[in-house]
Design a protein that fits this description.
87 residues, elongated, alpha+beta, two-stranded antiparallel ribbon
């Protein structure tokens, strides 16, 4: 069963999940913990990770590769449906 957690949020880019961040982000060192008891990152840790993702997205074909795989699957499904209906 899918359940939305109140302590975390997802950062996405064009529908792809990049990273999970706390719902409430502190600017200083925080003692907040997730539901599992893991210490949550502060604002500056999240900013550092997002800068790294920005570098990966702009300089490497990571997201473009995921988009290409998704498009290939859609084309294959469309072709299978169109050829399946001709029998």
């Amino acid at each position: 069963m899918w359940c939305r957690r109140p302590d975390i949020q997802s950062v996405t880019y064009r529908g792809h999940h990049l990273m999970t961040i706390p719902a409430k982000i502190d600017a200083n060192i925080t003692q907040r913990r997730t539901l599992e008891g893991t210490k949550q990152p502060n604002y500056f840790e999240c900013e550092y990770k997002l800068r790294n993702w920005n570098f990966i997205i702009k300089r490497k074909p990571h997201i473009q590769g995921l988009d290409k795989k998704k498009m290939d699957l859609l084309v294959a499904e469309t072709n299978a449906q169109s050829s399946g209906g001709n029998h």
